Amino acid sequence: MKMCVIGGGNIGTLMAAELAAKGHEVTIYSSKPQLFAGEITVFDQEENMICKGVMANITHDLSKAVMGAEYIWITLPSWMFAAISKQLEPYIVPDQKIGIIPGSGGAEFAFSNIIKKGAVLFGFQRVHSIARLKEYGKSVYMLGRKEELQIAAIPKNQTTVIAKDIALFFEMKTVELPNYLSVTLTPSNPILHTSRLYSMFKNYNQGVVYSRDTLFYEEWDDAASHELFLCDEELQKLCAIIPLELTTVKSLLEHYESYTEEAMTAKIKSIKAFKGMLTPMIKKDNGYIPDFNSRYFTADFAFGLKIIKDIASIFAVDTTNIDKMWLWFKKIADREQIPYFDLKMSRKEFLDLYL
After folding, report:
1. Which of 11, 25, 70, 325 could be stapled to 56 by a disulfide with Cβ–Cβ 3.0 to 4.6 Å?
2. How far does Cα 323 stand from its chain's mean position?
3. Is 235 helix (H, G, I), strand (E, B) or coil?
4. What percentage of the chain reaches a pLDDT higher than 70?
5. What does the buried/exposed string (b/e) look like for 223-244 if buried means 16 or more CB atoms within 10 Å of the residue's CB?
6. How many Å apart are CA 113 and CA 315, to the nearest integer?
7. pLDDT given at position 71
C-alpha cells in the first residue's frame, strides 16, 4: 500500500521502517527531510539488527506526502493536532485512513473537519512498541514491543477492516475496542507522566534549581505512585458513569499488575524498556530546572489530563486530585506558549460522537 508517516521522531521513524520493510511504499513527512537517509535500520536493545526499510520519499511538501496514501500515520504530539489537521484538510479525500499513534490527546476533536470530509480516523490505545532514535533519520531502537494492539475508529463500523490491516502490517494480535472514547481515556501518559512530574515539581518556583537531572522511571518513588493511584481511581469512576462501553479502559493497577503503591513503584522502576530515560529538564549554569516545553508537559498535562478533567465536568464526576494537578500546571504554564485543550460540548453532542 501507499502510506505516509507524519513525524520523524522515535515512533514515526520506527513505524516508517517497519512498514517499508514489509514492502509498502512509505513517504515520511518531516520538517528536516535533509537529515534522513533513504534507508532506516531498526535495532533491538542488544544492537542486533531487526529490519531495514527503504523509503519511497522524504519530504516537507504535505500535499505530495499524502496524495494517494491509503494510510496516513500521525505521530506528532497532541498539542500539534489542531495545526496539522488544518494543514491536511485541503488534501484529504474520502476513505483515506488517518491513524493517530497513540490515539489519545483529543484527536477526535482536532480532526473533526477531516472526519466530516469522509476520512476514517483511528487510533492505537497505546503504541505498539517503545521506540528510541539511535541516529536521527537513519536508525532506531525497537524496545518493549507489545503482545497485542487495541484500536478504535470513527466511524466505529470501520474498526474491523482497519484492525485486520494493522494485524498484517505489524504481525501482531489486534483487538477491536468498542468506541474511540476507549482510546481517549486510556490511563497511560496523561496519568503516568503527570503524576510523576507533579510529585517531583509541585513545590517548584522560579529561581529554584536542582542539583542533577533525575531518572524518570528508575528513580520513581512512592510519592509518584500515590498520585498515580488517586488519578487512576478518579478515571475509573468517570468510566463507570459514562453510558458507553468502557470496560477496556483498564486501570493502571491492572495494567501493571501492581495493587499497592509500593508494588507500583517497584514495578515501574524495573521495566527494562524504560531504563536510562531522564526527566525533562534544562541544564543551567548552576543546576537544572524543569523543561515545561517538553511534550510531557505540553501534551500530557495540556491535552491529556485536561481532557479527562473536561469530560468529568460534563458528567459531574468529582476529580479532586486531577483538578489539583491541573491547577498546579495551569499556574506554572504560560498559555501563550502552551495551548491547552478546552472541551465545549453538551453531553448529547459528546456521546453522539462515539456512537
Report:
1. 25
2. 21
3. helix
4. 99
5. bbbbbbbbbbebbbebbeebee
6. 25
7. 98
